[in-house]
Amino acid sequence: MTEASETEYIQHPGAVMVIALLDETTLLLERQYRYPLRRHFYELPAGKMEAGEDPLPTAQRELVEECGYEAGSWRISHDAPVHRYRTSA
Known about the structure:
89 residues; two-stranded antiparallel ribbon
């Protein structure tokens, strides 16, 4: 006989990741301290979307909140997953 088990998961509304170029040769990264790993990492700016929020306003907000920059132009790609923000079991 198989015992019944429970699976817990978090339903995630989605996230964005920003690839910000300061000029033709300079990529913007942020230094983040990740408490579970007890160390700093250099990462692309990223953040969680609010329920029903479109990706562009999320990306614009995260770039300002995390790095203090506003972009002059935007190009959106929906193909790249943001692994630190996703629904998982």
